[in-house]
Amino acid sequence: MIYGRGKTKILDENAFGIWSKIMDHIFKITFNAVGEEEHRRKISEGFRNVNAGIYIHFPFCRSFCLYCPYYREIWDENKFSKYRNALIKEIQIIGNILENSDVKIVDIHIGGGTPSIPNPSFWKDIMEELKENFNINVNLGIEANPEDLADEEKTVKLLDSEVTELSIGVQSFHRTHLKALGRRHSVEDVEKTLKNIEEVGFKHVNMDLMYMIPNIPYEKQLDNWREDLERAVQYKVQQITIYPTLITRHCPARNLIKNGRVTQPVQFLDQFLIEARRILEREGYKRIRIYSWSRGGEYATVNLEMIGPLLALGPGAMGFTGSYEWVNVHSIDEYVKRLSKGELPVSVSRKVNLGERIARYVIDRLFTSGEVKIEEFQRIFGGGLELIPKGLNRSLSLMKLLKFIKFENNCLKLTERGFKKANRLIWAFVLKVPCRLVEKLTIEHYPEKVEI
Question: Is 440 in a helix, a strand, or coil?
Fold first, then answer.
């Protein structure tokens, strides 16, 4: 069962009970306004002699999915042209700041929004600009909508544009589920897209599937979930990632939620997870994160947001040096305006102390990958697990007592019993921190202070 408020019917930020409270206790965060000079200095100091990732936010969608919590605006050719020029300008400015920093880019991920909307030549141009400004030895990974890649010619052009990794937002093979989520694409789009990408031959393909679909009866939904998984594995993609439908206060369906017209089978959350694991592991997929299974390799991800170092580009993107975290303005117009003046589009930022760095590292490693290697921990932080902050340490002690985690082979590991609990912790974090931040910064672009 979900340990949320007694009669909760949706997966909102309070639906995970003790796990939601643990997130409240561990992450009490304050972002503040920052000046241009200080921001540039922090970036320059934070990316010296490191391997880093790049995250680019593409803020356009053709329509809004009902439960999407991310910053995006409706596709507009004129705005896109201005965004393109501003993005190139931002790449150039940060490239100049880090010219002598010896930073090596090891991961590039394009999220959104819907990065598969524009002509693939756009991403080729962006990649050329990135190569001119940074030391890069990787290709691009982008999130894609099946509607866009049902066109075989566009799919071929995408590969020619140095996009070698794809994350396809399939979500479901059932029309009723796609409609309930407010998705534009059809089941036929999904089938054409998966056929196209198999024939073209991308380096790595991840398929996203969603469960806990609002307003679909549990018995029907669980049967459909099994069918979705069985169909997914037939396409031989390298990776399958599963997500519950999370409910935020600022999503497009907020009025339906407010009026009590959205329900989910929250008490059966574990069952969807159990079925996914059973089917995927039976078909040869190995769990690489608590929400992702792979047959080899991992799609470029944004997990560097948790531990850094990650360069942020585009409106709404979040960057992290390891000790300094910042968020770009959540407005295309403001983003374009700032960069037209030669200024970086930062909205708010904050310093991250050693205690929080350690907490973020432990949570990322333990509750996504499944283990914290003590030797690696010591190498990074210069000490043992006694460095873990008291608040998190108390939570870990409780989890150890409940046999959710264990110490084995010089590793702190997630147990089989803890696997299901870790999902609650991770999704509680997503709802409590990044989703809430998006909500606040979409309302006020340049606040003096934001408390999470």
Answer: helix
What dihedral do alpha carbons 276, 202, 152, 162 form, nearest 10°? 130
CATH code assigned to 354-430 = 1.10.10.920
User: In sequence order, what are the residues at sequence separation of 6 or more whose Cβ sits closer than 8 angstroms to the Cβ of residue 310?
Assistant: 52, 53, 54, 55, 302, 304, 318, 319, 320
Token pair of 263, please? 């329900």
The per-residue pLDDT for range 270-300, each reduced to its tens digit, is 999 999 999 999 999 999 888 999 998 888 7
Pure H helices in 347-433: 354-364, 374-381, 390-401, 416-432
> What is residue 358's predicted lDDT score, i.e. its pLDDT?
94
pLDDT for position 236: 86
CATH topology of domain 32-304: TIM Barrel (3.20.20)
C-alpha–C-alpha distance, residues 73 and 54, integer Å: 22
Query: Tens of pLDDT along 46-68?
Result: 999 999 999 999 999 999 999 99
Domain boundaries in the chain?
Answer: 32-304, 354-430
What residues contact residue 341 under an 8 Å CB cut-off, 6+ apart? Answer: none
B/e letters for 149-174, b = 16+ CB within 10 Å, e = fewer, are bbeeeebebbbebbbbbbbbbbbbbb
Cis peptide upstream of residue 6 (ω within 30 degrees of 0):
no
Beta carbons of 301 and 109 less than 8 angstroms apart: yes
32-304 against 354-430: fold identical:
no
Closest listed residue to residue 294, CA positions, set 201, 222, 232: 232
Tokens of 189: 């789009």
pLDDT in tens, 367-420: 888 899 999 999 999 999 899 998 888 889 988 999 999 999 999 999 988 988
CB atoms within 10 A of CB 118: 18
Q: What is the pLDDT of residues 6-24, one digit of tens each?
A: 455 899 998 988 888 888 8
Adjacent-strand bridge partners of 412: 372, 407
Burial of 405 (0-12, 13-18, 19+ CB in 10 A): buried
Residue 21 CA to residue 384 CA, distance in Å, equals: 26
